[in-house]
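Morning run. Coffee first, then this:
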Amino acid sequence: MADSFGDRAKGQTAMENCLQKAPDVNLVYTINEPAAAGAYNALKKAGKEKNVVIVSVDGGCQGIKDVGAGVIAATSQQYPLKMAAMGVEAGVEYAKTGKKPSGYTDTGVTLIAAKPMPGVDSKDVKTGTELCWGGK
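And here it is:
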């Protein structure tokens, strides 16, 4: 385990360090897609990219492109614009009525994979591209 701080270059360094401790790693989970891309760079540099499955989270447009290119096997796509809109709505409701939000609000997540697996609810890269954020 290593902290990449969600950064591509730090993700690469973290993966290089992990490979020194665990050269036979076969699965990598990253905090976001830039960290996943960095991990992939380190694995490729070590000639191990074909034997390691990388999964991530976010669903930004570049990350979805990386799923399509085989850099990331799958990513859990989140929806920050929906999160922000719902947060603003809750703030407006509080300002109008004094009602404070409580509990947990699920804004949704979709697993995006280049090759959806049987038994796992997932969508393809085309769908991920339609729903991605951060510039297409």
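The radius of gyration is 18 Å. Good start to the day.
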